[in-house]
Amino acid sequence: MTVMGIRCMALVRDMDAAVRFYRDVVGLTLVAEEEDWAAFAEGFGLMSGADGVPGDDLRISAVQVCFMVDSVDGWYDRLVGRGVPFLVLPRELGEGRLAAFRDPEGLVIQIMQADRDA
Prior knowledge:
By secondary structure, this protein is an alpha/beta fold. Helix content is 19%, strand content 37%. The chain has helices spanning 15-26, 72-81; strands at residues 8-12, 30-33, 37-40, 44-48, 65-68, 86-93, 96-102, 108-114. The strands form two sheets. Strands 1-4-3-2 form a four-stranded mixed beta sheet, with helices on one face. A four-stranded mixed beta sheet has the order 5-8-7-6.
């Protein structure tokens, strides 16, 4: 048996705001959307988490969302230009470069560029 891929779903309270952020600000490609979920071509999705997670803070989870990108600095400049504040400024880390920001729901999202020589 082989894992053919992984899709990461973020639980959100405000689906419309989350879709707008990831589509219009981050620039992901929305491929499907229903009332309580949305999927992007890049393998990332959103699911309404208001029901089924009683009293839990949806920002607290053991899942880390990291978008692998071609240029952390390019993405950083693009997102800062669109008003996204960063928690972690672009920096070298291990065999790559990364930065991190919070989405409108408070989820920490990383962008990472793998070292081309690795």
